[in-house]
Amino acid sequence: MGVESPAARSTKGDLTRQRIIEKAAGVFNRRGFAGASLSELMEATGLEKGGIYRHFESKQELAEAAFDYAWEAVSAPRQRGLEEQKSSLDKLLLLVRNFVGEPPRTLSGGCPLLNTAVDSDDGNPVLRNKARAALSGWRTRIADLVRSGQRNGELLKTIDPDSVAVVMIAALEGAVMMSGLEKTREPQHIVGRHLEEYLLGLRARSKG
Amino acid sequence: MGVESPAARSTKGDLTRQRIIEKAAGVFNRRGFAGASLSELMEATGLEKGGIYRHFESKQELAEAAFDYAWEAVSAPRQRGLEEQKSSLDKLLLLVRNFVGEPPRTLSGGCPLLNTAVDSDDGNPVLRNKARAALSGWRTRIADLVRSGQRNGELLKTIDPDSVAVVMIAALEGAVMMSGLEKTREPQHIVGRHLEEYLLGLRARSKG
After folding, report:
1. Closest CA to B92 of B170, B155, B136, B159
2. Inter-chain contact B170–A170, Cβ cutoff 8 Å?
3. Are residues B34 and A30, on separate chains, in Cβ contact within 8 Å?
4. How close, in Å, is residue B9 to chain A by CA atoms?
């Protein structure tokens, strides 16, 4: 076992850093920023305090990296199969089905957007800004799909693309809250069916 | 100034207890259970630790009383004017309008159901049960209104009353999350218009 090169040390450090982020993400997502204790973070990562904070300047820095990881972890499965859909309407319907389908196993504690929005509403401006940017990006992606469907004549020109995005996101996130509280996915399935009918009702009449 | 009777002492104690609950409700609603610190509770109530805990056995007991108060504080304005509406549909429409209208000034920090559901999803079973009961009661009240509208021929017999309740609550609560994050009531207004259209679409055809 020779002396590690600086590059190898850096790679190993990066891997440890990434592993800390992944494990901490579940703790922050379940507990919130204030509620995530050092002892829980140590237990989840299997590291001592010094082992964690060798890679992060502060709990704040770790929480920020954990949010980015968590949002990516839940967002990726929601986009699954979207590229294979030809029509904008089918893409919108698939977004709903992906969301209300099986939860991603990569993260415990529910939707990190909902959790961070509610947790950071008083006192953590950086996490709050991250959640706001995540929401804004989600709104934009849905509104763009609607606009594209309007351009190609699939969807009614009279609907407001951003309003469609707001209705979809509000209903889906509210259903996550209900499902989390009731420990059943029933609310998500009900909302999924509602949004499916809603989206089908936005079809341009000529395509009806 | 004579010696206070036991009854007078009790009344004064009750008043102090009630004032602590009211002030603490805002702190718990903004900060969550773990995030609500003793110093914040002391600042909000204007009392020392001993002054607060003379009336409550624990932070847990205070948080439970605060949730009950908070839920009542937001629920009452949502029911405003309901009795004056003759039709079930008008009652449902008014529920939506009350919700998305001006927020009650009685409580800071947004909807206590949303906050408690998200905050307590790991670790506080009593608060969680309180939030679950609040959600369940809300679902029942809306579903009962729909059933009543079906019985009197206003609303389609084919709709599932509980599904209407889930759609309304999910969309409204999701909009609260979005509005809280974006610091604008626009999402609530968009969702309000969506639910209005949705409810109007549930009218029995003969009443068309």
Report:
1. B155
2. yes
3. no
4. 37
CB half-sphere exposure, A123, CA atoms < 13 A: 17
Dist CA A181 CA A183 (whole Å) = 6
Q: Which of A1-10, A90-99, B90-99, B131-140 has the lowest mean pLDDT?
A: A1-10
SS3 labels along A9-54? HHHHHHHHHHHHHHHHHHHHHHHHHHHCCHHHHHHHHCCCHHHHHC
What is the ipTM, given to two decimal places?
Answer: 0.92
**B136-161 in b/e burial notation, b at 16+ Cβ within 10 A?**
eebbebbbebbeebbeeebbeeeeeb
Burial classification of residue B106, based on how many CB atoms lie within 10 Å of its CB (0-12 exposed, 13-18 middle, 19 or more buried):
middle
pTM of the model: 0.92
Decide if A160 contacts B159 (C-beta within 8 A): no
Closest CA to B44 of B70, B14, B61, B21: B21
Q: How far, in Å, CA of A140 to CA of A161, rounded?
A: 9
Q: Which residues of B touch A137 (CB under 8 A)?
A: none
Could you tell me the residue ranges of all domains in chain B? Answer: 6-207
| Top CATH class, A6-207 | mainly alpha
Region of residue A184 (left: phi > 0; alpha: psi -120 to 50; beta: else): beta
